[in-house]
Amino acid sequence: MTPLPVATEHARIRLGAALRRLRSAPTSVRCGRLVRINGLILEVEGLPLALDQRALIRTGEGRTIEACCVSFDHGITHLMALDADISVGPGALVYPAGTPADAGGHFELMERQRALPIGFSLLGRVVDGFGRPLDGRPAELSGPPGQGSGRLNPLRRSQIREPLDVGVRAINGLLTIGRGQRVGIFAGTGVGKSVLLGMLARRCAADVVVVGLIGERGREVREFCEDILGPETLQRTVVVVATADSAPLARVRGAWFATDVATWFRDQGRHVVLIMDSLTRFAMAQREIALGLGEPPVSRGYPPSVFQRLPELVERVGNNEDPNASVTAFYTVLLEGDDSSDPVADTARGVLDGHIFLSRELAEAGHYPAIDVERSISRVMPKIADAVQLGHAREVKRMFGRQMRSRDLVAMGAYSPGSDPELDTALRVWPRVSAFLQQGPEDVLDQNASLAQLTALGHDIAGRA
After folding, report:
1. Is it the case that residue 287 has pLDDT exceeding 80?
2. Contact 211, 275 (CB under 8 A)
3. Nearest alpha-carbon partner for 239 in 366, 401, 128
4. CA–CA gap between residue 111 and residue 98 (Å, rounded)
5. What phi, psi does 436 have (nearest 5°)?
6. Predicted confidence (pLDDT) per residue in 131-143, tens digit
């Protein structure tokens, strides 16, 4: 066979390469242009997208910014960036994620940063609100992605019948939590909230712990993972982080992603504890998004969608049809100026199954954990505790309340012993009540030990009355 001339062979190679490029080129390319930035909202013309669909914005420096569709209006698509650090000018090209883009003579696939699939490979990992690794370890993207449960039929939820051992004596004895309960931890700043959360994470009798750090200071994330959780607890924990400097969409998505992870493990037959710090910062991020979209503020600056999203988030967790699986959730609620009538706190109390108040007065007196047992309540405790425990818990709370209300009178010397028999009893048993309610961060007290000590304290109160 006569070989082709060199020039002809080169032409054939070039023709083959051109044909391959032609076959790989898309039949059409969808893109829009950025026409306006209005606060947090990026307005794009010429690119219709569905709600929550991702898009990528190509900057002049060759970078790409990932964004998400949050609304649309009269041919304008409203996007919000997933990350706070954006640098983009007018006319920037915007492409749907996962589609090809013209890169000057060839096409590139515009792919978003891949996330870890929801699954057992997440255990021991620290990720952001979109499932992207933050711990520097390999992505480990093998395996199909999981999906957390959506809305559950309320009539198919198994009832809360079993107590959860949280390892904190005051809660085990006086505010018993059931598997599948949703509890709020209401606290101002600097009253020991993080320490209590660490105690719950380390000691809860759960197969999996999911921690959502939403709007936290960046300094505290590593401290929480390494010092408060520790390497042993971290092995059964998934930590989802959206720090205070994250974009509002990232903070909101962090709360939803942590919830999805918790419900996925529950659907695999596991007992899960979800700890979210904090529900208030989720509401604040949702407020930023809603105000950016033009919603009117209706209650102390919060738009209506905030009070719709809070119940949607909380109702995802709890029990499903399987009586041997659950998600027990602890949500922290920040009280600005210790004001418990804050609209977010008010809404949270209405949708949660109980609340634990942390007292600044107790914290300032060195009483930790600073749980105000008189203001706190577990709404499912009457169903999962026997009459003896309920009676002892009622007496301890009564003595606590009597002492706290009269301490100023006693401190000033204005009280005459014998004039109030109940207060006399409260004063006599106060050292034991105070010791029962306090617990060191490293002390380990399971449910049985807590109830035994509560019973002994209850008998002591009855004997001194």
Report:
1. yes
2. yes
3. 128
4. 5
5. -65, -40
6. 888 888 876 655 5
